[in-house]
TrEMBL record:
One Pfam family of this chain: Glycos_transf_2
Gene Ontology terms for molecular function: glycosyltransferase activity
Transmembrane domains' residue ranges: 238-261
Classification via SUPFAM superfamilies: Nucleotide-diphospho-sugar transferases (SSF53448)
Protein name (database record): Glycosyltransferase EpsE
Gene source species: Sellimonas catena
Domain Glycosyltransferase 2-like: 7-165
Swiss-Prot/TrEMBL keywords: Glycosyltransferase, Membrane, Transferase, Transmembrane, Transmembrane helix
Similarity annotation: Belongs to the glycosyltransferase 2 family.
């Protein structure tokens, strides 16, 4: 039944301390019909050296591409997509890790639910002290859910390649940096594709408690830009424009209020 090839696309950048753990979590998957396509986005540390060691050891399964300079995640992932030979595309980041049954659980959904093109899962956040939070989204996101933010965790996702081909991959625009996935889902839903979130933790993102506070204001404007697009493209009621300003307003709040609001998004998730 599960003989379809999965292409894992991974943009890597200055992740020498974490890359091995990320790749090892792919090598440990219970489903092994996959290829890993990494693209280095101008790293200045030993990231490429470490990646090349894995390519040498697993030359039949791992490919390494290199950008001449830092180009951003949109461009980098599109380079990976151009090399992908799998029927399904899975994401992975070079500083994260996933559970060893991730691929087989996600693939099962895509094979059993033919109307689903995007599948993701609940996701934990961890740092050097251990797991400190978790995020979960609606099981079957509707167009109206997009106004609250991206309805799928990007890093744990697996998507039918057909959907990527239809929307021509990620859109390479400066206004979409850090929200490239949010925009991608909009394009796919606009093209008629739909998705599902598995309410089980299949992925862990390396992050610290205060990373969200360091998000630059320009990226908050990028999020507002995409939210305005949601209202227009999905013909949502005009009052939804109040959500367009939310990323900018929240970013200007004192830390104590920001922390309180952020904690509300960290749900209790199931393993």
């Amino acid at each position: 039944m599960m003989c379809n090839k999965i292409s894992v696309i991974m943009g890597i950048y200055n992740c020498e301390d974490t890359l091995s753990e990320a790749i090892d979590s792919i090598l440990a998957q219970t489903y092994n019909n996959w290829e890993l396509i990494m693209c280095d986005d101008g790293s200045s540390d030993r990231t490429v050296e470490i990646a090349k060691k894995y390519v040498k050891r697993y030359s039949d399964k791992i490919i390494l591409l290199q950008n001449q300079k830092n180009m951003g995640l949109n461009y980098t992932l599109n380079r990976c997509l151009n090399e992908a030979k799998g029927e399904y595309i899975a994401r992975m980041d070079g500083d994260d890790r996933c559970m060893n049954d991730r691929f087989i659980v996600e693939l099962k959904v895509l094979q059993e639910e033919k109307d689903i093109a995007i599948v993701s899962s609940d996701m934990e956040y961890f740092d050097e002290k251990g797991v400190w939070g978790c995020i979960s989204h609606p099981e079957y996101p509707k167009e109206k859910d997009f106004i609250y933010g991206t309805p799928f965790c990007h890093a744990p996702c697996m998507v039918r390649k057909e959907a990527f081909d239809t929307v021509q991959g990620y859109t390479n625009k400066k206004q979409l940096l850090r929200v490239e996935d949010y925009h991608l889902w909009i394009k796919m839903y606009e093209a008629g594709y739909r998705g599902k979130n598995i309410h089980k933790i299949l992925y862990q993102m390396r992050d610290d408690h205060h990373a969200y506070r360091r998000r630059k204001l320009k990226y908050r404007f990028n999020e507002a830009y995409v939210k305005a697009m949601v209202v227009r493209k999905f013909n949502l009621p005009i009052w939804n424009y109040i959500y367009v300003l939310r990323p900018i307003i929240v970013g200007m709040l004192p830390a104590i209020f920001y922390n309180m609001m952020h904690k509300k998004h960290l749900a209790i998730c199931r393993r």
